[in-house]
Amino acid sequence: MNLLWPKSKQALLETQRKRKQVAVERARQSRFLKKRIPRGKAEDIWHRIPLLTKEELRSIAPQRFHDEFCIQPRTRVVEYWRSGGATGRPLFYPRSAEDMETNLMAF
């Protein structure tokens, strides 16, 4: 993955266009998220996708979270991250090795 700054505004817009498509394709693989994604191309529907809240994530029973929300198999989970818990109810997020690598590069 390339995390270098885009060389122009056009390059930035192209990266955004490509990554939006990837994000929409992945969201459509999730049982939970696919109901939220309108039909159409990512660039046409992006602004109509509702924001996801922690309360919506909390509505998924913990024992069903992985099967309903995640798209990677459990065998790909290498670590669980925890939200800050400022509300008193932290969330736990499964992370794959690819997630961890990307997070380290972005850091």
Q: Can you give a write-up of this model?
A:
The chain is mainly alpha-helical. The protein contains 5 helices and 2 strands. Strands 1-2 form a two-stranded antiparallel ribbon. The longest helix is centred in the N-terminal third of the chain and has 19 residues, at 9-27. It starts with 8 loop residues before the first helix and ends with a helix.
Strand and helix layout:
Layout: H1 9-27, H2 42-45, H3 54-58, H4 62-69, E1 77-82, E2 92-96, H5 97-106
Keywords, separated by commas or semicolons:
43% helix, 107 residues, 10% strand, single chain, two-stranded antiparallel ribbon, mainly alpha
Mean pLDDT: 90
Strand content: 5-15%
Biggest sheet, spatial arrangement of strands: 1-2
Count of helical segments? 5
Number of strands: 2
Structural class from helices and strands? mainly alpha
Q: Give start-end ranges of low-pLDDT stretches.
A: none
Please state the overall shape, judged from the principal axes of the Cα atoms. globular
The ordered string of helix (H) and strand (E) elements is: HHHHEEH
End-to-end Cα distance, whole Å, is 14 Å
Largest sheet: 2 strands, antiparallel
Q: What is the helix content?
A: 40-55%
The value of Rg in angstroms is 16 Å
Q: What is the structure about, briefly put?
A:
With 107 residues, this protein is mainly alpha-helical. The chain is built from 5 helices and 2 strands; from the N terminus they run H-H-H-H-E-E-H.
